[in-house]
Amino acid sequence: MAVTYIDAIKDAQEKALEDNPKVFLYGQDIGKFGGAFKATKGLQERWPDRVLDAPISEDAMIGMAVGAAIEGMRPIVEMQFADFSSVAFNQIVNQAATHYYRTGVPVPIVVRMPSGGTPGSGPFHSQSMETIYAHYPGTVVVTPATVADAYSMLLQAVDLDDPVIYCEHKFLYRWLKSDDYKGDNLPIGKARITRSGKHATVVTYSAMVHEAVRAADMLYKEGGWEIEVVDLRSVKPLDTDTVMASVARTGRLLALGEAFPWGGVTAEVVSRVCADGFHLLDAPPMRLNSKDTPVPYHPKLWAMHRPTPESICEALRNLLAY
Question: What single string gives the DSSP state of each residue in 106-163?
Fold first, then answer.
């Protein structure tokens, strides 16, 4: 029986609860209701004292989790949507992220953030927040794009002593399926070559990995172009070595992301390649992100707002033609 991306997240939390009595889950309606996306469904029945409903206050949720982590617990906090985490911004970046630096006491919390857009979700339920949290020292930011990574990276995140922002993409929840959770179990901070190629490199992460692979398949059928796709897997730490090695093979770079274009992960990738690998490039590096507007509600507008296989192909054609 196939397992989905959301199954992987639920089962990883279940295993974490089984393996470590210090792990507990905390979030709005995650108990009997099972969470907004049912990522905790049935877990409170097994662990009524460790799967806890939270008040509708993201600030209070992270504050409690920070305090519990300081005392030795390992909380996994569910934000209903990544967008809502801005209410807890102070607790995440000024308390959790800095605590070890200030005191020598780690804060091992995992904040699950349902990220990215889906048709009809609109501006308050579709944002990609990974750039904001990666900006601050002390955080680890992961962006799993496969079922196997959704499972293994969540378990790795629980074991880390640093606060981890776990960006799970809502569009992948029930669409992405696999036979099992078996994978290469790469560590957090190591990128993966999802598709090998020799003519251009696409560096991306999360749901955009799948759009990039579709675009690469289209260009191969169109003209025999072989596009290499690099899945960053985590955006902080960012695996510059794998990116540079890919650009050295292809000579061309497209940095692709669903987040807004100003600054961000794609800008960081281009900046690092230009600074340390300018001599490797045969063409100016390119970036492709969502439009610089709030995320629209209408499904057709949303489809135009974010990168698609067609718009990725267009960008790559321009890159290949240089």
Answer: ----EEEEEES--TT--TTS----HHHHHTSTT-EEE---SHHHHHHHHHHHHH-SS-
